[in-house]
Amino acid sequence: MGGMLLVVCPYCWAETDVAEPRCGACDERLDLSCAACGAANHLGDRFCGDCGQPLAAVDEPPAAPAAGTERDELRTITVMMADLDGFTQMAEILGRERQSAIMNAVYERLAGEHIVRSFDGYIDKYLDGDIMALFGAPIAHEDSPERAVRAAVRMHTELAALHADGTIPPEAPLRLRVGLNTGPVRVGGVGAGGRMEYTAMGDTVNLAARLMTAADWGQSLISTSTERRTRGSFELTTLPAIFVKGKSQPVELWSVDGERRRAARIELAVSHGLSRLVGRDDLLAILTDGWAQAQEGQGGAYGVRGEAGLGKSRLVFELGRTVDPATSSFYEGRCLSYGSALSYLPVREVLGQWLGIEDLDDAATRWAKIERAADVTCELCTMGRSALGFLLGLEPTEEAWVEAEPQARREALRATFATALISQAQERPTVVFIDDCQWLDADSAELIDALVRTVAGTRVLVLLAYRPDFEPPWEDPFLGLDLWRLTMEETGEVVGSLMAARGLVEAETTVDRSMAEAVWHKTQGNPFFIDQLVTALTERAATTGTPTIDFRRGRLLITEEELGRLAPDSVEEILLARMDKLPSEPRNLLQAASVAMLGRRFRRSALQQVLDRDDLAAPLAQLVEGEFIHLEERGEGDEEYAFDHALARDVAYGALLRTERRRLHGRMGEFIEQRYAGSLEAYLDDLSLHFYNSTCADKALKYLPRSAARAAAVYSNQQAIVQYKRAIEKAGELGADANNQRLEVLVGLTTVQTLVGDAELVGYLEQRLILAQSLDDEEEQINALFMLARRHSEMGEFGAAQGYFEQARQAFERLGDWTGVRDTLFGVGNLLYLQGQTEGALEQFQAALDVQLEHLEFDPFGQWVAYNNLAAAYEGLGRYADLLAACETCTELLGHMEPGDPLRVQLETYTYGNQGQAQRNLGALDEATEAYRTALARAQATGERAIEAEVRYWLGQTLLEMGDVATAARELDEALALARESQHARWEGGALIGLAELARVNGDLDLAASRLAEARALAERTGELAASEEADLAESRLALARGDATAAEALAVR
Question: Which domains are present in the chain?
Fold first, then answer.
């Protein structure tokens, strides 16, 4: 059964059947009579179905006007006049019936929901192919001029698409030109006989029509008033002024060439009234020179340091004005005061601007944009595409990425970020600006560090702004610049410039010295504080009717004492005072906005859900007008805003009561879940942040572990630890019902803590053990016991470690897990060996070997480990024949592994090294030398520099015993260099002692003493006991060579 098609009556706003000639609610006629032929047409038709002429129809407004809009009122709105040409020729070529169908489709696409109405425009009328649309009436918006211009741009684009898809046939093309003007108009109802139509009249409408007529086909022209309100959001070309009918003076006009993706926040502030840059000429010159050098291939990195409000971002903005967007790129990422829980936030913003990523792009769209860029940026590392995807919130599936270790993935992130930006800058010199680095998250810091260290010799300029409490870790080519507070004279210049920029005076005023002094004493020369103080004083004058500033003469009308009482003492207090003076509706919205952040911006749709209301246009307009927030970008049917200054957001957030703050965070988390349901992986950090700060502990426990695991996957271990700990906190709020989840989180947390040696690891492992016991999870109990044993062993707490190993062994035996039993025996054996209890260690190693042989399948590697442990104990006990036998068994076991297997080659290094030790101590020096040389070849094949240093040390000592002094010297010199390269104190000290022995043999006793002094200093610095003991023996022999038998004996005994 088919449903009837409904339309909205334009007179009473009731829905009614389109087939009915009259409205069922108000009885107004809904059919439209053609003025040309008299035929009846349905409401909504744009052209007559009989003769094809345009119908003068009442358009369906986007929403019911507010109460009272039937009365005339004066409003500032933007009027669009669009001329669509070619419909008469189309009727002649295609016939009136087909022409009418095409034109209805064209008007629906251009003026219907698709464009004009999507920007909340109101179609005033159609007349002879012209479209008149109003933006700002009957529905008011704070950005109506921008909406109108964006609609015009989209109309041209859509008309081209209608030609391309065949809707408009090539034999009957249409063309479009548009004029836009902003100004006061009389709006309201006009008509007769009880029938009223909402319309606009006046000079503003007439000028829009004149601009439309002056435009070329395919062009949109805007007036001065519209340009002033939209600059920064569009690419505009200034055209020669023209004379138009009804104007005595020529009219300035601009051509709209296209949209800009986003206007910078300070650029938008220009339209609010940005003062002239004062007191920063020398710093700007340095940055300008740096940019010139970068364009010539001599990139660099600069830091801009200063307290809040001194103008760090403003300084960079002034540089940005010199960056030509046609040939160069300017990417900006901002850190947030709450951004430590949002990994890679500024990095993601920079990459998103480069790749053109939009918030609502699904995964497939993001990957497609990455692929296009990666094809151009061909210098990316092997996992570069996956790394870009991860940084943009995607889940890479490339085999190399999935199989890589977290450390390898992290290195790929470092390499990719720097390489991608540097590579694309070969075609377009690039500025990368990271703002508010005092809030830089650790993961982003690492990637930015890689970029800073590689920009020399490239076409990239890196700029980092931060407050004084941030210590930049970078050296050359990094150069730090300091911003200082303004002097009293400079403060006066800023005040005068601000008054002119705000339109309070016609030209920049020279401020009276007493006013400059009063403002300077109050603000201490902080430019943002000065701005807020002037704003607060003008607002106070407006609300009280009592002027505070004589703008024309540039002087205060109140005393400095009165100023001190009226204005708070800090910029934070003055912001709070200004917020307190707001009406409750915009004030509540501002506080909600401080929570509803995605990165550094917030969407109107997010506020609508957080506040559970739709009518936000008026309070948003008040906040924009009050210069608390600004519009950054308009998407399809939604806007994105940002706070004018980070301090404004922090003050608004800090003023929220904890209960309300938690409620708003929960609502924002729900918004993200719904709005980005298809790409939640990209918003795990945001979801975790909002639900953690809410009362929704179950949701927090859902997302925090996922966020932590994602961080751990790229070795962002500190970030993972933070998220896991927050998850444990939320699990505690849920009580015993969440114990299973809590155990999973503890497993993840302690796994990551083990990698970084976190000081709190033992405490969390004990929690993990107790919880596993309460849940009767024996497998997790064993894992916790094993990890506790290892951690206590690393801390030198051998008694506790042995107790945990013993508990784990008993549990393994109950389960019949013989691999676990073997490993605990190994663990206890190693503990005893480290304590010098070699006999006990040997017993444990032998027991482990027995378990391996009796209960486990043949495993060459497992058995090799067992015999290698026995070999260590035999060497410690001086049982060199048994050591040699164990080495021979190890060699046989390795024969079962594939030749060339990297693991086999690595194990052969240890085996032949041990064999050399056995034969050397058994007096078979030639065989020992051969074994050492075989071990050396294996170490060189695996690239293990520290092992190579050890083998060369023992080979050098053996050669020295054999009397081959020259070869011994070469081996010991090489051992020393390798040990220092690999920072291995044991073999650095050993090599120094060996070289001391060599010098003694050669008769150079002073050189021998010098080498021994180096070895002793190293041992004291590193606590390397073995080197200290060997130094005693070597020094004893040196004393004997000098004829000091007493000293020699004392050293030998020690």
Answer: 69-259 (3.30.70.1230), 280-482 (3.40.50), 488-580 (1.10.8), 584-695 (1.10.10), 812-1053 (1.25.40.10)
